[in-house]
Amino acid sequence: MLWPYYDYTFRFDPEQLLQDFVDQDPPATVDGMHRALTLRIKSDMASNWRIIQRLRVALQFALFLWLLDLLAWLFAIARI
User: How far apart are CA 10 and CA 36, in angstroms?
Assistant: First the structure.
């Protein structure tokens, strides 16, 4: 959580959208734009889900190690 992660995909570049849909000859239809954007959003969701799952597993592992460390400290204090 403390280290920034910039590999998420969820943004649309307006210039790229104009090139893909408006600047074509002929321009894309609204239905075609909706379909293409929907498929792009679905692809971004799948990509982000893999990243989020890896982060979740890493954070759960870190929490487990932190709890073991806490227990070790508590046992060490209790023995004094």
Answer: 14
| C-beta of residue 44 within 8 angstroms of C-beta of residue 10 | yes
Look at residues 31, 54, 34 and name the one whose alpha carbon lies nearest to residue 42.
Answer: 34
The contacts of residue 10 (CB under 8 Å, 6+ apart) are 44, 48
What confidence score (pLDDT) does residue 4 get? 59
The Cα–Cα gap between 12 and 39 comes to: 13
DSSP 26-75: SPPPHHHHHHHHHHHHHHHHHHHHHHHHHHHHHHHHHHHHHHHHHHHHHH
Residue 34 pLDDT exceeds 70: yes
Is the pTM above the cut of 0.90?
no
